């Protein structure tokens, strides 16, 4: 199984916002820190906002923050939302499936079961678990912030 680039960038955006909890962050900040293009970020940020994972504020003093508390955002929910419509294999694509084995294949249900197990595991991981207490990540993403409070300098 491979996650799309969009899902990967989504997690970077959410982790960056979590590392800077309590303040608006900008797309350009995230692009620089997370090595992502602003065009990709714009699409991802828009989708995360539609899904309620982010709150976006337009304008001169605009930016983005988490749309929910860190401990209320599960990685599984983000992955599912961002990967919707991306078939894992051809046989999961109702429109473009050309596999002649689909009616007799026992691999498809095994893959479906494995995918559900993957998502079930990711459902138990929250954004807070990825960010809070992760000193190495905070050093990269927010050297002056320590998960919800200003770090001693």
Reconstruct the topology from this structure:
Layout: H1 5-19, H2 27-34, H3 38-50, E1 54-57, E2 63-66, H4 75-83, H5 107-123, H6 127-131, H7 135-141
Antiparallel strand pairs: 1-2
Helix pairs in contact: 1-3, 1-4, 2-3, 4-5
Which keywords apply here?
mainly alpha, two-stranded antiparallel ribbon, 2 strands, 153 residues
In N-to-C order, the SSE pattern is HHHEEHHHH
Biggest sheet, spatial arrangement of strands? 1-2
Strand content: 5-15%
Choose one word for the global shape: elongated
Largest sheet: 2 strands, antiparallel
Low-confidence stretches: 149-153
Structural class comes to mainly alpha
DSSP, total strands:
2
Helical amount among residues, as a percent range? 40-55%
- Give the C-alpha Rg: 18 Å
Distance between the termini: 42 Å
Please state the average pLDDT score: 88
The number of helical elements comes to 7
Please characterize this protein's 3D structure:
The protein is mostly helical and 153 residues long. It is built from 7 helices and 2 strands, in the order H-H-H-E-E-H-H-H-H. It has helices at 5-19, 27-34, 38-50, 75-83, 107-123, 127-131, 135-141, and strands at residues 54-57, 63-66. The protein has a two-stranded antiparallel sheet. Helix 2 packs across helix 3 (38-50). The longest helix has 17 residues, at 107-123. The protein is elongated, with a radius of gyration of 18 Å. Mean pLDDT is 88; it is low at 149-153.
């Amino acid at each position: 199984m491979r996650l799309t680039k969009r899902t990967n960038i989504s997690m970077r955006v959410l982790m960056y916002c979590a590392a800077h909890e309590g303040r608006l962050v900008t797309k350009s900040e995230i692009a620089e820190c997370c090595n992502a293009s602003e065009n990709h970020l714009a699409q991802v940020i828009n989708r995360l906002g539609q899904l309620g994972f982010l709150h976006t504020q337009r304008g001169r003093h605009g930016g983005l923050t988490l749309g929910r508390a860190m401990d209320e955002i599960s990685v599984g929910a983000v992955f599912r939302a961002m990967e919707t419509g991306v078939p894992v294999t051809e046989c999961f694509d109702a429109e473009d499936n050309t596999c002649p084995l689909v009616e007799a294949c026992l691999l498809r249900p095994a893959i479906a079961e494995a995918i559900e197990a993957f998502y079930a595991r990711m459902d138990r991981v929250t954004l807070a678990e990825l960010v809070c207490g992760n000193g190495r990540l905070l050093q990269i993403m927010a050297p002056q912030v320590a998960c919800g409070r200003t770090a001693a300098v």
